[in-house]
Amino acid sequence: MRTSAIILFVLGSLSSHAQETAPWWKSLFRTKDTVKEQPHSHEIAPINIPGFSTEEKPGEVLMPAFTGDNEENVNSSQGLPVMPGSYSLTCDEGIAQLDSAWKSEEHPVQGYRVQIFLGPLQEARKVRAQIRKSSEQNVYLSSMPPSYRVTIGDFRDKWSAERQRQAMEARYSQALVVPMPIRLPAIDL
To answer: What is the model's pTM?
Structure first.
C-alpha cells in the first residue's frame, strides 16, 4: 500500500510538472472566448503620397489610384507612377577584365559532326579538297594522333547528323556520327 502511494505521488508530480513546462498544448483545448487577444500597441497610419487618392468607396477594396495629369508617367499594369531615375554600376577592375575576356573568346557548343575519313595527313587533305567542292557543309580537318580525320557539318542534334551520314554513305562507307564541339550555325531571321 505504501509503495503504491509513493508511485502515485511520483507519477502525479511528474504529470503536473510536464503540464507546467509545456503550456502550449493547453491552448488546443480552450474555446475562442478564453484565448486572450493581444492588444495592438500601434495603429497603422495612412500613407499620403502626392498624386495618389486613397478614398474608400463602399463595396470596393482600398487601392491607391493615380490622380496626376501626366498619364505617360503611369505604369498601366499597377497604376503606379514611373519616376525617372539613374544608376551607376561599379565593379572591381579584375571582374571587368574577366567579363571582357569571356566575351572575346569563342565558346563552342556540344553537337555532332559526320566523320568521313580517318588516315594519313596527305590523304586527309585530298579528301577535304574533294568534299569542299561537292558539299555545302563546313569541312574540318583535325588531328587525332597518329592520324588525321575529316569531319563535316555542325549539327545541333544527332538525327540531323545521321541523315547527313546516310546521304554520304554510298560515297564514304566508313562515315560515322561523332559527338564534338561545334560552331553554332547562323540563324536565318
So the answer is: 0.46
Sign of CA dihedral 100, 103, 106, 112: positive
DSSP state of 32: T
Cα–Cα distance between 67 and 47 in angstroms, integer?
Answer: 15
65 contacts 53 by C-beta, under 8 angstroms:
yes
Q: Render pLDDT for 50-61 as a digit per residue (tens, 0 to 9).
A: 555 555 555 544
Mean pLDDT, rounded, for 82-95: 80
Average pLDDT over residues 53-81: 53
pLDDT, tens digit, 9 for 90 and up, residues 24-33: 666 677 665 5
CA distance 80 to 65: 8
Among 143, 163, 164, smallest CA distance to 152 is for 164
Rounded to 5 degrees, φ, ψ at 36 are -80, 135
Read off the C-alpha cell for 57.
468607396
Contact 149, 124 (CB under 8 A): yes
C-beta of residue 175 within 8 angstroms of C-beta of residue 115: yes
Running DSSP on this structure, what letter comes out for residue 55? -
- Cell numbers found for residue 75: 505604369
Q: Class for domain 110-182, per CATH?
A: alpha beta
Q: Where are the beta strands (DSSP E) in the chain?
A: 52-53, 65-66, 74-75, 80-81, 109-119, 139-144, 147-155, 176-182
